Amino acid sequence: MDTAIVDATVLTFADGSPGIIEDGAVGIDGDELAYVGPAADFDSVDAETVVDGSGLVAMPGLVDAHVHSKHTLLRGGAQDVPEIEWMNRGLGPFATESDAEDRVAGARLGVLEATLAGATTVGEYADHVDDLVESVYRPFGTRVVAIETINEVREDRSDLGPRELYEFDRDRGEQAFERANALFDDFGDDPLVTPMYGPQA
Question: What percent of the chain is modeled with pLDDT above 90?
Answer without folding.
Answer: 67
